[in-house]
Design a protein that fits this description.
The chain has about 220 residues and is of the alpha+beta class. The protein folds into two domains: about 1-110, no CATH class; about 115-215, Roll (Pdz3 Domain). The chain has helices at about 1-30, 85-110, 155-165, 215; strands at about 35-50, 50-65, 115-125, 140-145, 150, 170-175, 180-185, 190-195, 195-200, 205-210. A four-stranded antiparallel beta sheet has the order 5-4-6-7, with helices on one face. Strands 1-2 form a two-stranded antiparallel sheet. A hairpin with a 2-residue loop joins strand 8 and strand 9 (about 195-200). Helix 1 packs across helix 2 (about 85-110). The radius of gyration is 27 Å and the shape is elongated.
Length: about 220
């Protein structure tokens, strides 16, 4: 039940922010907003400032931005329907843009303390790795796909290596700007001496990229 309530609140916040995007751009572009509401359903509280009623409604799911002339034509010069196409376009896309910016801010907050990220670029090999070289893997190779699955992060590598079930894999790598295909490549878990212990591993180490603001966004 707790997770359902959390989901409802988060969903409601996202919709409210979406509607706020419509609201603020409508105001900036001279469109009359009759009501800006947080929540849906019966009215709990409201206040009017200028031409707009600001409302809090009972059902905490979303909200709405009621613009003059949004659903029907009107002679009001401040109506949505009276505005040129470019203004209408900006107002309509502003909601989606607000959600994008919200996601961007959340990512920056979540990863704000990260010093670096492990990338799917090979940094080296553990002693005894048998498949390094021009016909196998080399330092600097970026793994692009594993068994047809696109790789974006090091965690993707871990996931699809584990799904291979210890069998040979089909790899696509990027080396010196060129894609190379390694079909049925014998990259399987083996016992390696690592950190003073014998461990079952794939024998690869990966590069760590500094967590600059641009990297955090990517």
């Amino acid at each position: 039940m707790l997770y359902i309530l959390i989901a409802i609140v988060v969903f409601g916040i996202l919709i409210a922010l979406h509607e706020f995007g419509h609201f603020i751009t409508a105001k900036l572009l001279g469109v009359r907003v009759n009501e800006f509401a947080i929540g849906m359903g019966p009215l709990l509280w409201s206040t009017t400032k200028g031409e707009t009623q600001y409302s809090l409604r009972a059902i905490p799911i979303g909200g709405f931005c009621a613009m003059e002339g949004e659903d029907e034509a009107t002679d009001d010069p401040g109506s949505f329907s009276s505005k040129p196409g470019w203004k209408k376009f900006i107002i309509l896309v502003a909601g989606s843009l607000m959600n994008f910016l919200t996601g961007l801010v959340l990512l920056l907050v979540v990863y704000s303390q990260a010093a670096g990220f492990v990338t799917p670029v090979i940094a080296g090999f553990i002693d005894g790795f048998p498949n390094q070289g021009a016909d196998g893997l080399m330092v600097g190779d970026r793994i692009l796909s594993v068994n047809g699955e696109r790789i974006y992060t090091k965690s993707d590598v871990d996931l699809f290596f584990s799904r291979a079930g210890g069998e040979n894999m089909d790899l696509v790598i990027l080396r010196d700007g060129k894609k190379l295909v390694l079909d049925d490549f014998p990259l399987i878990p083996r016992e390696y001496l690592y950190d003073g212990e014998t461990q079952l591993m794939y024998g690869l180490t990966f590069t760590v990229e500094e967590a600059t603001p641009l990297v955090r966004v990517q």
